[in-house]
Design a protein that fits this description.
Shape: globular
Oligomer: single chain
Strand content: under 5%
Order of helices and strands: HHHH
Number of domains: 1
Number of strands: 0
Length: 74
């Protein structure tokens, strides 16, 4: 990802923390947890997903982003 994307993701980390805590609570109750992000083109789905992954990492949980961008390309 670009440096700009990383900066936005880091800045968005504060906003992602409540969601990350909720996902961590779900993870404690049932494993695994699948979380999806939907939105239009260039809406910030990847940025949100990366911010949530970073926030989950701060809580000691491992998460992955599974991008579907390549699916859209011929």
């Amino acid at each position: 990802m670009t440096t700009e994307h990383e900066a936005i993701t880091t800045a968005g980390g504060d906003a992602a923390r409540p969601l990350a805590r909720h996902l961590a609570d779900l993870h404690a109750a049932t494993r695994p947890v699948l979380f999806g992000v939907a939105g239009g083109v260039a809406a910030g789905k990847s940025t949100v997903a990366c911010a949530v992954v970073r926030a989950l990492g701060l809580l000691g949980l491992r998460a992955e982003v599974l991008p579907t961008d390549a699916f859209l390309l011929p």
